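Z., the sequence and structure:
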Amino acid sequence: MYFCKFKLNLSCNIFVFLLIFSAFFTTFLEAKITNSTGLNNHLLPLLKNPALKNVSYGISIVSINKNTSLFNYRSDDLFSVASNMKILTTSAALEYLGPDFEYKTRVEIHGRITASGELLGDIIIRGGGDPNISGRFYNANILAIPESWTHALKNKGIHVITGDIIADDRIFDRVYTGSNWPENQLSEWYCAPSSGLSFNDNCVDIILIPEKKPGSVVTLLVEPDTSYFTIFNTCVYTSNKKEHAYSVYRKPETNQIFIKGKFWINAPPKTTWVTVHNPALYLATVFKEVLEKNGIVVQGNARLINADESLQTDLEVIAQTTSSMEQTIFVTNKQSQNFYAEQIIKTLGAQIKGSGTLATGIEVVHDFMNKLGFQPEEYHIDDGCGLSKGNRLSPTMITTILAYMSQHQHGKVLWDSLPTSGTDGGLRRRMIAPHYKNKIHAKTGYIARASALSGYVDTRSGDVLAFSILMNNFKDLCLVRKIQDDICKALVDYYH
């Protein structure tokens, strides 16, 4: 009996000890998670979601006004950041070049103009790395810029060009895409190549038009209408909705585009964007075609300048197109344009290091990170846009960048470029309730098994919080995005 009582007391004591130890361990763990802020009562339950069981993630939240850290979970660990990489790239551009930096693309005469209007020589399109030569800022008129150049030549009295239309893209190298980008996706718009001379986001727009003609080949609208591409279209109409499936693909290292499958006759028009090979030659070809359509005879060819070809640098400028870094950053972040981010990072290399390559651009980004207290061996950068899985940053690094930029003379440019909850960009359909709409200004990010959300929160107390939520190795994208949104909502609701 006494032995049984002893066993019972011992079991009770062990049980009580385990309860006390469990409570202590939980308190210790939570202390490691957060910096003793009231937010943990609202954030920690969100992190106990079963959907996060095998997910690798980190969180950093800081108060801008108080200059204090509010909440951390694995905030110093490195994660794949997807398009949150654009925060770093655009911040570095604002630091070293500023929003008023101008991209300049010049159309120059190489030769002389006769009294009869013949240009005895060539036209040079001298690229400056501008990503904005498109219809984006010209009422969606893709040809607006080459048409303006054509009018400038006509106003000069030129009606015959005896030489070539030469594309000079040498401000950048000709390594068009990232070495760690998905090879089977290089014809997709988000893998558009970077180039010192670009056009239409270095894509061609192909629109599949529905018609009531089952069995016939699908009608295509191609913009711009150019001979630069060869399209092999075997896609046919079908009256069976279940058969609606088609693919659009460009053969690597060529401009041969293949469209296959079946298109439902009652489907709405579908637009797809296919990347180009050799973007500078693309622009030269389209410009030559626009010239000819406007009555200017071009006797030579559209061609890419040789890497070592020597041309005068003081040629007569007939036309010049400019755009600003501010509008470039706006598109980069608001629309998550990988192509724009790659143009920016090579621009940093060209302007700051004297060589327009990804490697020199990354050197500039390293310089920026060094200013913020981080050494290159503490993180990894593979590109400017985040498409590569090799980009590895910590949540603390991102909130440090955001906090620094919040006090920066050009910080508002970054703020304005970030998607806004319930309004635009990648957040237009997220946190749409009136209570949260326009309260979160943050960059989204997604590549395979990596989702990120980092930016700023306007709180009810008037404070501004910088936050970074990086999530890797999940199975359900919708669930992790909901958890990201719930964290942001808690910051709006409960931070005082």
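The chain has two domains: 36-99+326-494, 102-325. The two ends are 59 Å apart (CA to CA).

Let me know what you think.
H.
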